[in-house]
Amino acid sequence: MRRNKVTVIGAGNVGATVAQRIAEAGLADVVLVDIVEGLPQGKGLDLAEAAPVVGHDARVVGTNDYADSAGSDVVVVTSGLARQPGMSRDDLLAKNAGIVRSVVEQAVHHSPNAILVIVTNPLDAMCHVALQASGFPRERVIGMAGVLDSARFRTFIAEELGVSVEDTHAFVLGGHGDTMVPLPRYSTVAGIPITELLPPDRVAALVERTAHGGAEIVALLKTGSAFYAPAAATFEMVDAILRDRKRVLPCAVLLQGEYGVDGLFVGVPVVLGAGGMERVIQIKLSADEQRAFQRSAAAVRELVDKLPA
Ligand SMILES: NC(=O)c1ccc[n+]([C@@H]2O[C@H](COP(=O)([O-])OP(=O)(O)OC[C@H]3O[C@@H](n4cnc5c(N)ncnc54)[C@H](O)[C@@H]3O)[C@@H](O)[C@H]2O)c1
């Protein structure tokens, strides 16, 4: 049986960690691509040399040549720049849009049937760029954000209540980061809504910490941003796709009327399986939740409108 093949573009912190998780789980062979010469080759070789100790047979190679990525089942896009001092958000948007467009065009040329998992920020806007650059249907362009945001929320809920993370579930909608819309009434511990387990001020504090979860880590690290949890979240999505697990996970997908939004990538719960995004799960929102969702969608729209044509 042919082993699955995953290409991870960007051999930086997130990309290399995703590659490690995929290989060490024996999920797929991994091709690590970066623009910097030697970097993906070095990290790829290092990961390959861990295989005998870890005990897996997945092949890991690093390259600067997209021809090596040919026939990939999934392409994960993590390439991009972090915001530099003096660089505005709009500068970053334009720079990363250029990078994502170029890497997606090259990758899909060699892997026309792949499913794209986008990680590069600003996430929701980069999904638009990837959709356009690939010409793929919406089912095959999926953004990673909600799994990370809800993992952070779950971590804080479990810590607050002194319970296992395994028994916590969190429900997060909307754009990534500041504009996310956590839904506490659907966030549960062993099926019990957290609104019945915690007073409103504590729920609000956990929601607030979750929305700024990325910034909290940036402030601690001083250089660079989070990558262990982002890589774990990306792995969960790739695993759901390659093993056709039909997992219900919050992902950024192109909405076509669902939740009253048309033509925008926004985070919603979807079924992830071999077909990529197989179904959007719709739930009824309260008036307040719907307003927060619309605000989040409007923030995504604002960024998308600024994308270079
Ligand atoms: N969606 C999320 O929730 C989430 C979470 C964490 C990080 N991110 C984003 O993921 C991206 C990567 O983060 P990181 O910490 O790994 O950054 P990093 O700087 O460690 O790695 C980025 C890599 O991209 C490479 N790169 C740049 N231009 C390229 C090109 N044209 N072709 C190929 N490779 C190119 C760089 O050489 C570098 O190795 C950032 O945009 C970050 O904001 C998103």
Tell me what the structure shows:
- It is globular and about 55 Å long.
- The longest helix is centred in the first third of the chain and has 22 residues, at 89-110.
- The chain has helices spanning 13-24, 39-54, 89-110, 123-134, 146-161, 200-211, 213-221, 228-242, 287-305, and strands spanning 5-9, 29-33, 60-63, 74-77, 115-118, 141-143, 168-169, 172-173, 181-182, 188-189, 192-193, 247-256, 262-273, 276-280.
- The chain is of the alpha/beta class.
- Nicotinamide-adenine-dinucleotide (NAD) binds next to helix 1 and helix 3.
Report a brief summary of the structure.
With 309 residues, this protein is of the alpha/beta class. The protein is built from nine helices and 14 strands.
